[in-house]
Amino acid sequence: MADEQMAVDRSTVPGGERDEAGAEPPGELLSTPVGTPAYAAPARPLDAIDRDILRLLQTDGRASVRSVAERVHVSRANAYARINRLIDDGVIRGFSARVNHERAGHGASAYITLKIVQNSWRTVREQLRKLPGAAHIALVSGDFDVLLLVHTPDNRTLRELVLTRLQSIPEVLSTRTLLVFEETDLDADPQP
């Protein structure tokens, strides 16, 4: 489904008008992955059908356009256009599998809080992205600056990651590790 993206004529997209020379107007510079446009218009508001499509795709990212269309009661063409608009607007960032980390050989999970040097977020984020097992990184407010979720094969590997890798980053002032004993995936199908 993600491979079936439609080409979008930006001159027909609200906020995507071009000047006489055909250049796009300057927009807000966003931090986007390589290969995506550096300038983007704000996302359009979502209606109930868009939210239903998102809920369905979060539950089953492999659902066919036909299945999505039937379940939200729109035509296949309408569902296809909506899904592609959600992708183009950056609402849908990709499609992925939900992994049981323990069965995949990563039996130790932890949330690690970090206090970092002021104004070092971008530098620290790039270093954290390179860590094996890093699953989620967030800049947060409160008693610490960064929340990091990691999955490792065992506690020994987790200990090594914290004491050797994380604490060797010069901008990291302190860490606190919270072991995960059990987790529940809220995007999964509801249990009866």
Describe the structure.
With 192 residues, this protein is an alpha+beta fold. The protein folds into 2 domains: 2-88, Winged helix-like DNA-binding domain superfamily/Winged helix DNA-binding domain (Arc Repressor Mutant, subunit A), CATH 1.10.10; 108-180, Alpha-Beta Plaits (2-Layer Sandwich). 28% of the residues lie in helices and 18% in strands. It has 5 helices and 6 strands; from the N terminus they run ββαααβαββαβ. The protein has helices at 48-59, 65-72, 76-88, 121-129, 155-166, and strands spanning 28-29, 39-40, 108-116, 134-139, 146-152, 172-180. A 4-stranded antiparallel β-sheet has the order 4-5-3-6. A two-stranded antiparallel sheet has the order 1-2. Helix 1 crosses helix 2 and helix 2 (65-72) crosses helix 3. The radius of gyration is 21 Å and the shape is elongated. Residues 1-39 have low confidence and may be disordered.
